[in-house]
Each structure stands twice: as C-alpha cells, then as structure tokens.
Amino acid sequence: MENNKQMRKWLDDFNLNHPLVIAGPCSAETEEQVLKIANELKNSDVSIFRAGIWKPRTRPGGFEGVGEIGLKWLQKAKAETGLLMAIEVANANHVKLALEHDIDVLWIGARTTVNPFAVQEIADALNGTDKIVLVKNPVNPDLALWIGGVERLYKANIKKLGVIHRGFSTYEKTKYRNNPEWQIAIDFQSKFPDLPLICDPSHITGNRKMIQEVSQQALDLNYDGLIIETHIDPDNAWSDAAQQVTPSVLKNIFKDLRVRKESDNADDFTKNMNKKRTQIDEYDAKLLEILGKRMKVADEIGLLKKEKNVAILQNKRWNEILGKMILDGEEKGLSEEFILKLFKAIHQESINHQEKIINK
C-alpha cells in the first residue's frame, strides 16, 4: 500500500484546530433520541455523528439495532445539524443501504476486520467510493490482520481511509474492557504515519469514568482523533450503557484534554528528550542482557530436572516467585497487572527452554 500524505487529505480538509471527534450513541434507538443527541453535539468539537444501526452482539437475544429505519433518522439529523453521519457496516447489503442514504463515513467493526472474506466483500461493494472508510483493529491482537484489512480497501481504490484503535479482547480480566495494547497501534502508526489514527476509548475502557484518561493517553501518542459513545441517558441505553457519556460530560472532557505540540528539532526540549531516549535505549539493552542470562540459568535447571526426572512446572516455587515479585514491584511503582504480565511471559519462556532440553 502506498504511504503518502494524500491518504490524510480528507482529515486535513476538515481544517480543524483540534483532533477530529466522532461522537454519538452506541445504538440509534428512536428518532427522538438520535435528533436530540445530534442537536446537543452540533455546537461542539464534534465533526461527525456516529450511531449503530446494525449491532453485532456476542450472544443472541440482545438488541441488534433498529436496522434500515435508523438511516432515515440520520438523514434528518444531518439536515438539522450539518454534522457528517457515520455508521458501522458488516456486509455488502449494509454498504448498499448506507450509500443509498448518503452516509458520509462507514467503519468496519472489530468482529468484521477479523474476517478477510467479509472485508473483501465490503471493499468490493465500496469500490471507488469517495466516502470516508475507517477500519477498526481486529478483536484479537494481530497487526498483520489489521494491515491486511486496510490494504484490501486501498486496492479497491478507496482513498479516504483511516483506522480506529478500539483495543483487543483478552481472556484474562483487566481494568479494561479491551486491552489497549498501545504498542500494536504504535507499530501500525510507524508503518503508515500518514494514515489517520483514531482512538476509541469507549470500547477500550468499557467504563465512562476512564474515558478522559484513555483519551489523553491517545493524544499524548499523537493520535489524530477520538470516537466516543455519547447518549442523553446513558444508564438507560439499549446497549453498552456503562461506557457512554452525556453530551455535557463530553464537552467537559474536551475542555480538560491537552494536545501536546510537536517539537522543533532545534529546541532544548528535543535535546533533553533525545538524552532521555538514549537512557531508555541503554536500559532496554541491559534488560535484554539480563533476560538472556536468566534463560541460561533456566537451561541449567532444565538439565538438572532431566537428570533427576523432575517435572518442569513446580507450582509452589512459581507462586512464591510471583507473590514476591508483585510485592517488590509495588515498592518500585509498578502495577500488579504489569508484574503479572511480565513474569508470566518470562516464566513461559523459561518453560519453553526447559521443554526443549528435557525432550531433546
């Protein structure tokens, strides 16, 4: 896929002095609800109004969207407010109906991005469109799959492309609904620096109290915009009630968010940053060196276990290490969540090393 500044021209055309903001309810529920939210958002930093028309649910029985009738509500909201309208599409029929109702922005959801066949079907249906098309990351942490989805759309001659980072599903319970895994988004951004990157703090957090925190993290990482679920009565929303904010709360979030300026290569800030980054690089090199030495000790333990026919996994020892590391980590300002992830990964690598030795 080409990587040029033409890819972000659609974003520059908004001529904003702040990050792009897409906001609106998780689901369009009634015409009155859609119009009321849209009108409350029209005189704010919001440029694009979002609403779910078809809602893919994890399990059957939940509210799955109002369907085509909701598109007419969005047309009316656009006429009243001048906001652009955005919806999620999951198949070619959704695309057909969206285009017939002159929807401005179409996004491909995380559950769809994970399926190349579905993405290709949508790309074929959108071939050559001048609409803005956004691709959410797949539910699983797979950078190649995310890139592949964007490439399919680009090959369908769709130039107004962007991506949405909404976090990744995980079996382990964390404070997030979907783990942000910021590094995956950073890697995507590094690969395609001119492709607009939008953060979805609503789906990352699943908790309205964390929206501002995660939004600020995204802006600190130079994201181009935010997509935030907004409802006039969040507690009684028909879907994803816990992660939606009111229009007034959203406006207060805008006031408190800070956009960091890009630095001039010649200023003192950049010089100091370069020094600090050099320190980070040195510490990273030392970390790798220490981990390499630790694995050599793990190899030696594997040889001892093989000699005495001892099982690789020693649960008592492992639990003792984990408990100690959590306590030690807290004293050093490291969260329990981070320590668990780090030492589980180290432990798994040690097991892999010992398995190779024992089964050699």
UniProtKB/TrEMBL annotation:
Record-level Gene Ontology MF annotations: chorismate mutase activity; transferase activity
Keyword Transferase: yes
Keywords annotated in UniProt: Transferase
Keyword Transferase: yes
SMART domains: CM_2
InterPro entries according to UniProt: Aldolase_TIM (IPR013785), Chorismate_II_sf (IPR036263), Class-I_DAHP_synthase (IPR052899), CM_dom_sf (IPR036979), CM_II_prokaryot (IPR002701), DAHP1/KDSA (IPR006218)
Biological processes annotated in GO: chorismate metabolic process
PROSITE patterns, per database record: CHORISMATE_MUT_2
Alphabetized SUPFAM superfamilies for the sequence: Aldolase (SSF51569), Chorismate mutase II (SSF48600)
Pfam families in UniProt: CM_2 (PF01817), DAHP_synth_1 (PF00793)
EC number(s) from the headed UniProt entry: 5.4.99.5
Domain spans labelled Chorismate mutase: 267-358
Protein name (Swiss-Prot/TrEMBL): chorismate mutase
Organism: Flavobacterium capsici
